[in-house]
Amino acid sequence: MHVTADDLTSTLRAAGLRITAPRRAVCEIVAAHHDDHLTAATVLEHARRDLDVRIDRATVYRTLEALEDVGILRHAHLGHGPAVYHLTEEHRHHHVVCERCGATTAIPVGEFDAFVETIAARTGFVLDVEHFAISGLCPSCAHR
Amino acid sequence: MHVTADDLTSTLRAAGLRITAPRRAVCEIVAAHHDDHLTAATVLEHARRDLDVRIDRATVYRTLEALEDVGILRHAHLGHGPAVYHLTEEHRHHHVVCERCGATTAIPVGEFDAFVETIAARTGFVLDVEHFAISGLCPSCAHR
DNA sequence: TTTTGTGCAAATTGTTTGCAACACG
DNA sequence: CGTGTTGCAAACAATTTGCACAAAA
């Protein structure tokens, strides 16, 4: 089963944080859209539209940050534009973004393993390949 | 020998662009700092300090863009913060940036070849690994 | 009732754009 | 001279911050 809004709020509470209406709303949205590319703006939108709650954008950022601090959420940068958030548990693929048309494609994590290990062996750096998407040209844009 | 400021201005001129004082200054700076991590702000700084020329930031961006359009310059995003520019000719390595302390390390291009080919074979995407730096933890930050 | 969290508004950072004046070719 | 360029100032997008007020625990 997937992570639920309650899982998220409990984790926040366990970390000594208070559970407020805005926080609960953000948790619900994050849980409900675990496989989307959630941005802070999207969360705000969902709060207003789906839950009919109006939260300030600063609060959205702060709540997302709290969830990240607690370890259940992460954000990634897919090219330019806003950061996208995803549950740590759910993220089982990386992204490649077409720098011309913006199309994104998912790449299974395993595809990166050999590469990450090579770099670790050579440089000592432990890569976090998913934090910044890799740029490139999608098949159709590449044909030009 | 390295690319000179004249090489840059000639290329611009060959593309039908006019050579103006600001453009010449930017070309000189780019040529002189071919192995640095030049940002638009840095270019501006050098223009003012080293060349005693005051260029507007919009002009710096436009000139850098012109150089990119002409194919002799590229920019990359090393984590957050401003884009860094480098001569196409000179760029013989990629970067990995420590997400904790910001340290960057260079990785020879060859290190990526196998990976880029695997992705191309599997997805048809032609990766441009250098456009967005890869995030990670440097050896010392990783030990925590 | 004492912290912690919220909304609001303003600040920040990096980059882009509209436009009138300007100058290369 | 005429079109490409510049500087300026304002617009932008994403995110952050300061602060008085509100509300969890």
List keywords for this structure.
two-stranded antiparallel ribbon, DNA-binding, alpha+beta, 144 residues, three-stranded mixed β-sheet, homodimer, Arc Repressor Mutant, subunit A, Dna Ligase, domain 1
Provide a descriptive summary of the structure in words.
2 copies of one chain form a homodimer. Chain A is an alpha+beta fold and 144 residues long. Chain A contains 6 helices and 6 strands. A 3-stranded mixed sheet of chain A has the order 4-3-6. In chain A, strands 1-2 form a two-stranded antiparallel ribbon. Chain A folds into 2 domains: 5-73, Arc Repressor Mutant, subunit A (Orthogonal Bundle); 93-142, Ferric-uptake regulator, C-terminal dimerisarion domain (Dna Ligase, domain 1), CATH 3.30.1490.190. Chain A has helices spanning 5-14, 21-32, 40-49, 57-69, 110-123, 139-142; strands at residues 73-76, 84-87, 93-98, 104-108, 126-127, 134-137. In chain A, 44% of the residues lie in helices and 17% in strands. Chains A and B meet through helix 5, strand 5 and strand 6 of A and helix 5, strand 5 and strand 6 of B. Strand 6 (134-137) of chain A pairs antiparallel with strand 5 (126-127) of chain B, so a sheet runs across the interface. Chain B binds a DNA duplex (25 and 25 nucleotides) through residues 16-20, 22-23, 39-41, 54-59, 61-62, 80-83.
